[in-house]
Amino acid sequence: VKFGIRNMIGDLDAVIAGNPKIVAYSKRATQEIYQAMRHKKYSPEFMEWVERGGYTSMIFANEMDSEMQEKLFSHLMEKDGVNILKLPAKALEKYFGAVETAHNFREAILRYSAYLYYKDAIAKNAGAVKDYVASNRYIVRGLNSAEDKAYQLSKDLLGAYDEVGNMGQTLR
Fold first, then answer.
1. Which 3 state secondary structure label does DSSP give 79?
2. Largest CA distance in the chain
3. Overall pTM > 0.85
């Protein structure tokens, strides 16, 4: 919970600094992500985001391997003489699956909201980007579609965990 709150505040901070209007898209993003996760119903915009790598740039997809989960949840390993690892494997698997799902849902909301915002902003500006915020303008200008530009802008704003190099991973 502490990790999730800290990560959420960091993401919200980036969004507010980049463009607070992105927050207005969070209700729609929440509804569409819920429909996708729970009912396997995908809106066209959600599919665009996913196909461009929507979930792959998030933290759990890149940094929450079993070693990191062990570090994060080590406080649960030995409590009152009970080793959580001795619980049935299915229960432990369900717990980690639920934690991962909750974090992915939470993180995807602002990332997808930013994608929706930038896609609308680009459409309202005749296909041009007005504000590059955290992106390299030359990279964004080199992209062909409004969807690719919106995805790159949103990914750069909230940090792309899938683009951290070996040195960055080692330092982190």
1. strand
2. 64
3. no
